Amino acid sequence: MSKIIDMRTDYSRALPSEWKDMSRIFVALGDEHRQRMLLLFEPGEHLNVGQIAEVSTLGRSTVSHHLKILREAGVLASEKIGKEVWFWINREALETTLGNVLDYLKENS
């Protein structure tokens, strides 16, 4: 006989701590403009705001805002050199996040 679970009382109200960083990454990647920005990067490439704004339909300040969200979520890494901030894909963070999701799916299938 299967047990009926009342999700209203059994459902966890907080994400496990190891999922919080992952959640920020998924939220950041939930926007189509940010997804397009991510797809601009070639392997190992570093881009600045101006280069991304040049090929975007968005203004420079809006591009900067989206890049900030991606950086704060850990999707992109950055370094300021002179007056320019250079961004690149934070491969390690994305691999860890996607690996955690795949591990979860393997454990629960």
Strand content: 5-15%
CATH topology, by name, is Arc Repressor Mutant, subunit A
Give a short account of the largest sheet: 3 strands, antiparallel
Give me the strand/helix succession: HHHEHHEEH
- Which sequence of strands runs across the widest sheet? 1-3-2
Averaged pLDDT: 88
Helix content: 55-70%
Secondary structure class reads alpha+beta
CATH architecture: Orthogonal Bundle
Shape: elongated
Which CATH class is shown?
Answer: Mainly Alpha
**Low-pLDDT stretches:** 1-7
What does this entry show, briefly?
The chain has 109 residues and is of the alpha+beta class. 57% of the residues lie in helices and 13% in strands.
Topology of this protein?
Elements: H1 7-10, H2 17-28, H3 32-40, E1 47-48, H4 49-54, H5 60-73, E2 76-81, E3 84-89, H6 91-107
Antiparallel strand pairs: 1-3, 2-3
Helix pairs in contact: 2-5
Textual characterization of the structure:
Helix 2 (17-28) packs antiparallel against helix 5 (60-73). Mean pLDDT is 88; it is low at 1-7. The relative contact order is 0.15. The protein is elongated. It has a 3-stranded antiparallel beta sheet with strand order 1-3-2. With 109 residues, the protein is α+β, with helices and mostly antiparallel strands. The chain is 57% helix and 13% strand.
